[in-house]
Design goal:
single chain; about 290 residues; alpha/beta; pyruvate-formate lyase- activating enzyme; eight-stranded mixed sheet; 10 helices; about 15% strand
Length: about 290
């Protein structure tokens, strides 16, 4: 069965097998995200998934990594998700990793023993949209979580032995809330045991811009490239320590400047690169090459 498109996945999953076990996002209220705005959330019946796995196993029998799409596979009932993982292990003998997106709400609903069992059945990596650590901004953008709730869920996933790849959105607070957004996000990042961290820049579909900006007082003013670079600089400057070494990337297509390193070890080099960019000595990605 052909996947329903557009099919969204993390950049790092581009070379892996993608299995669409849900359609859409069970939360689907974040005002900055239009990925599933026109798609109702549906959990695929297990019988349909079994057929699709059988076809995929014929086409790619030696698949080692599988990403469970769409945007909310962790929303699946625990028993169904476990059955899918066990099916994948039976059909793909060389499988060593399964991954999926994890919303704060659905991670919160899974108990520690459930997460441990899912981890034992090769669901070892969760992609987590943190976006911000500033509580008022999370409320205005209808993220559906507080910083404390996110920290609780991320600690639980880490205790279960899962790896976490989190994303933060630069520019989410605009020119008026940028400092609060970045400083509170850095505080949260210093508390939670992440394995990977990525930043991307705010990109709003034109039809979403007015609704996104409506809760902001004073009115929302988007950040320009200099503002985005200043946010990135402050975020890295504040991350003097993390619970464990974190592989950091800003190579998403939305970013003006691609950076890569391990935090906190590579902070000095990354900050030097940002200083060069802010001073105009390092070229930025042309605007026409940026996007989601």
């Amino acid at each position: 069965m052909e996947p329903i498109t557009p099919l969204w996945r993390p950049p790092s999953e581009g070379d892996n097998l993608i299995l669409q076990v849900t359609l859409g996002c069970s939360h689907n209220q974040c005002t900055f995200c239009g990925m599933y705005r026109h798609r109702s959330f549906v959990s695929k019946p297990l019988a349909v998934i079994q057929q699709e796995v059988a076809h995929a196993a014929m086409d790619w029998p030696d698949a080692r990594r599988i990403f469970l799409a769409d945007g909310d596979a962790l929303a699946l009932d625990y028993d169904q998700l476990l059955a899918i993982l066990q099916l994948l292990q039976a059909c793909f003998p060389q499988l060593n990793r399964v991954s999926c997106y994890a919303s704060p709400g659905n991670l919160g609903k899974k108990s520690l023993p459930q997460l441990q069992t899912l981890r034992e059945n090769k669901l070892t990596l969760l992609y987590y949209g943190m976006e911000s650590g500033h509580a008022p901004l999370l409320r205005m953008t209808r993220k559906g979580a507080t910083p404390a709730f996110m920290a609780e869920g991320l600690h639980k996933a880490a205790e279960a032995g899962m790896k976490i790849s989190a994303t933060v959105i630069l520019g989410l607070g605009g020119r008026h809330l940028w400092r609060e957004h970045v400083e509170d996000t850095a505080l949260l990042l210093q508390q939670v045991p992440l394995n990977f961290l990525s930043t991307l820049q705010l990109y709003l579909e034109p039809e979403m811009a007015a609704a996104f900006a409506a809760p902001f007082t004073p009115p929302f003013v988007p950040q320009d490239d200099q503002g985005m670079l200043q946010e990135q600089y402050l975020l890295l400057e504040r991350l003097t320590h993390t619970p464990r070494p974190v592989i950091f990337r800003s190579n998403h297509a939305s970013n003006a400047l691609a950076l890569a390193g391990t935090l906190p070890k590579d902070r000095p080099r990354l900050l030097a690169q940002l200083t060069a960019a802010l001073q105009g000595h390092l070229s930025l990605r042309p605007a026409w090459l940026r996007g989601l």
